[in-house]
Structure formats: structure tokens, C-alpha cells
Design brief:
Protein name: Response regulator
Mean pLDDT: 95
Helix content: 25-40%
Oligomer: single chain
Number of helices: 5
CATH architecture: 3-Layer(aba) Sandwich
Low-confidence stretches: none
CATH superfamily: Response regulator
CATH class: Alpha Beta
Keywords: Phosphoprotein
InterPro entries: Bact_response_regulator (IPR050595), CheY-like_superfamily (IPR011006), Sig_transdc_resp-reg_receiver (IPR001789)
Strand order of the largest sheet: 2-1-3-4-5
Radius of gyration: 13 Å
């Protein structure tokens, strides 16, 4: 059974980069969201057992998405992928329940390692 995955980023190029970095042997169904509100909608619709989340997006940013998921006790595995690597951002993301924080530009081997570490592959 494929794992429902959503890639949430306002940049189509970044979404495509994440999609290409996914391990080819990982059985997933990939959905995309271009802002935080769409990411929340995907979670609610059951399209995001795993959510790859950018922090800087319109409508709702990644921090707001994490806050929403944290408050609603959601079981979605969130891996943040962002260029905002300031220590404060990383600390806040971790406190809000993200499983991993990966920096942009995303490297496929780093993504694979993160997926192994959280037990997804």
C-alpha cells in the first residue's frame, strides 16, 4: 500500500526537487501543496501521512502548519525542508514536533538518511 506523501512548498521548482529526491524504491503516492492552507487540507483529506514542509509560504507558513498539527495531535510525520537554517528556526521547528529539519538545496542522500532514521524506509 503506497504511503500518502504531500510536498508543501510555494515554489514549484522546490516541490519538483523534493519529488526527484524521493527514494525510487519507496512506495508512495505524492500530492503537492503550494501553501500552508493546502498542506493542512491535504492532512485532513488523508493525503499526508508524511509531509515535507517548507517554512516560508503564503496563507499559512510552515510554523503555523506545525502549530496546527501539534495542537490537533496529528500523527503526520513532518520533515521540514527549508533555506531558513537559523538556530532559532530549527529550535522552534523541533519544539513544534517536526521529525527532521533538512536544508535547501535538498540532497537525495540526506533525504534518504532522514527517512531511514525515522523508520519510513
Amino acid at each position: 500500500m503506497p504511503v500518502p506523501v504531500t510536498i508543501a512548498d510555494d515554489s514549484a521548482f522546490s516541490r519538483k526537487t523534493v519529488r526527484r529526491a524521493l527514494p525510487p524504491d519507496w512506495d508512495v503516492t505524492v500530492h503537492e501543496a503550494s501553501n500552508g492552507k493546502e498542506a493542512i487540507d491535504a492532512v485532513k483529506a488523508g493525503l499526508a501521512d508524511v509531509l515535507f514542509l517548507d517554512l516560508t509560504m503564503p496563507e499559512m507558513d510552515g510554523f503555523q502548519v506545525l502549530q496546527y498539527l501539534n495542537e490537533h495531535h496529528n500523527k503526520t510525520v513532518v520533515i521540514v525542508i527549508s533555506a531558513d537554517i537559523q538556530p532559532e528556526a530549527v529550535e522552534l521547528v523541533n519544539s513544534l514536533g517536526a521529525y527532521r529539519f533538512l536544508k535547501k538545496p535538498l540532497a537525495a542522500d540526506e533525504l534518504r538518511q532522514a527517512l531511514l532514521e525515522v523508520g519510513l524506509i
